[in-house]
Structure formats: structure tokens, C-alpha cells
UniProtKB/TrEMBL annotation:
Residues 1-57 form the ThiS-like ubiquitin domain. It holds the Pfam family ThiS-like. PANTHER family: THIF PROTEIN, TRNA THREONYLCARBAMOYLADENOSINE DEHYDRATASE. GO terms for molecular function: nucleotidyltransferase activity. InterPro entries: ThiF/MoeB/HesA, ThiF_fam2, ThiF_NAD_FAD-bd, ThiS-like_dom, Ubiquitin-activating_enz. This is Sulfur carrier protein ThiS adenylyltransferase. CDD domains: E1_ThiF_like. Coiled coil: none annotated. NCBIfam families: PRK08644.1, thiF_fam2. It comes from the Bacteria. It is an enzyme of class 2 (transferase). Keywords: Nucleotidyltransferase, Transferase.
């Protein structure tokens, strides 16, 4: 019988179980993961199953690391995500959180675009740390993602996006994420993609300020390849700021929508 152990195809005896294999191959493993699920008791194995053995506190080899990163995925997901290229326009509250989520699930290539630097006020909702203050957001985010998942490709573009360069910057991206906080930039990116890059998907956002109900942030499909996330009304203004919880809800709606598109699930 053939199955995968830490993402490597191996042949084992038909009568083997998850725990018997652990005892023979990595007896000191604290965690046994079968097809994305941590086992609490032994399980019978079948052809094509995916097993991972993990010892808490142990740093795995580079070869094993990628397999362990994807061991909690639903089987078949990683292969599709690894081939995808996603562009993210803006690395603020939305974009920085989207980039982290997509890196964690293993999207093969991210094209990250921003021209700004990390400021102290960014830390209330963006995926940066005090040590990043003053750094270019592109540089800071690339370093963060390298620490999260060194097996993806991260391309950074330190520029101001407008209709003259959007097509060139995102020429490889199958899905483009609009993560700006400027309404003019939001509109220009969305219009450019919808009118001049009709074979690409765009995932945009509008309305995630304040601390209103979680449940008002939703994902809408507004065209064949256009998705809009948010409540559509809660803009940042005096007395209604942007804070991590609600911004992150919208960001993860966007990230999950991107992942679903890559996996062929294009309906909301």
C-alpha cells in the first residue's frame, strides 16, 4: 500500500496503522496528523492517505518543513495553491493580513505592492512590529513572510499604482486583491482590472471601520470575476476609526475568497 509520510510517497504493509507507523518511523513523535486531522486514537490507513509525525520543540529539516506546514490542509489543496500567483495592492490593514494568510496556506507566489513606510499608528491593525517602524512596508512584509513560510516566492514592488502600471505590475497574477484605503485608488485599480484585464479575478473591499457587528461584513459577487467584501457603509471617519478585529474579518474574507477562486470554487 502506498501513502505519504511528511509529504513523501512511501510503500507500507497493508496491515499498518497510523500509530504502528509512528512507532516504527518516529517513535518520539508527540503529534500524528492524518489527512489534516490530529489523531487522538489509532486509525486504520488506506491507499493515498497523508500522515505527518511531529515532535514538539524539534526543528525539522528544510525538506520536512514544507510537508509539515501543509499537513493540516485538506488533501489536494496544496498542489493547487502552490501553482498560483496572487497580486496584493496595498500592504496596510487589509493587505498585510491577507498576505500573511495566503503565505500560511502556501500560495506559491505573492506580488506585493506598496510605496509607504511602517508608522506607529499602523500597529493597531497591521501585521507589523515596533522593530519595523520606518521600514518600507514591502521590505518589512517580505521579512515577515520569510519567517512564516520560506517556501513561497515573494516579489515586492515599491511603487505607487495607477492606470499606467497596473497591468505590467500584475501581469503574472491570476487573482488581484484590492487592499487600498484611498477610495480613488480603489476605484482606479478595480476599473482597470475589470476593463483591461478581463481574464483576471479581482477581490476588493469596502466598509470595515468601527466595531459594528461582525455579521454585517459579507462577501458579494458583483460580476463574473469581481468580488466585494465589507458592509459597504462603514467608512473610516472622525469618530469611526479602523481597528484590528473588524479589519481582520474583512481581510480574511478576502483571503478566503482568493483561496476559493484558486481551488475552483467561484461562487460565494
Amino acid at each position: 500500500m502506498k501513502l505519504y509520510i511528511n509529504e513523501k510517497l512511501v510503500e507500507v504493509k497493508v496491515e499498518e496503522t497510523a500509530f504502528s507507523l509512528r512507532d516504527r518511523r518516529k517513535k518520539d513523535a508527540d503529534i500524528v496528523i492524518l489527512n489534516g486531522f490530529i489523531l487522538k486514537e489509532d486509525a486504520v490507513l488506506k491507499e493515498g492517505d497523508k500522515l505527518s509525525f511531529i515532535k514538539r520543540g524539534e526543528t525539522p529539516s528544510q525538506e520536512d518543513m514544507e510537508g509539515l506546514l501543509v499537513s493540516r490542509h485538506t488533501p489536494g489543496v496544496h498542489e493547487k495553491l502552490k501553482k498560483a500567483t496572487v497580486g496584493i495592492a496595498g500592504l496596510g490593514g487589509l493587505g498585510s493580513n491577507i498576505a500573511v494568510a495566503l503565505a500560511r496556506v502556501g500560495v506559491g507566489k505573492l506580488v506585493l505592492v506598496d510605496f509607504d513606510v511602517v508608522e506607529p499608528s499602523n500597529l493597531n491593525r497591521q501585521q507589523y512590529f515596533i522593530k519595523h517602524i520606518g521600514m518600507k512596508k514591502t521590505e518589512a512584509m517580505k521579512k515577515l513572510l520569510e519567517d512564516i513560510n520560506p517556501f513561497i516566492t515573494v516579489e515586492t514592488v515599491d511603487t505607487y499604482l495607477d492606470k499606467t502600471n497596473i497591468e505590467e505590475v500584475f501581469k503574472e497574477a491570476e487573482v488581484i486583491v484590492e487592499a487600498f484605503d484611498n477610495p480613488v485608488c480603489k476605484a482606479e485599480l478595480t476599473t482597470t482590472v475589470l476593463t483591461r484585464m478581463k481574464d483576471r479575478y479581482i477581490v476588493a473591499a469596502s466598509g470595515m471601520a468601527g466595531y459594528f457587528s461582525n455579521n454585517t461584513i459579507i462577501t458579494k459577487k458583483l460580476g463574473e470575476k469581481f468580488y466585494l467584501i465589507g458592509d459597504g457603509v462603514s467608512e473610516a471617519k472622525v469618530g469611526c476609526g479602523l481597528m484590528a478585529p473588524r479589519v481582520n474579518i474583512a481581510a480574511n474574507h478576502q483571503a478566503n475568497t482568493v483561496m476559493r477562486i484558486i481551488l475552483g470554487e467561484t461562487e460565494v
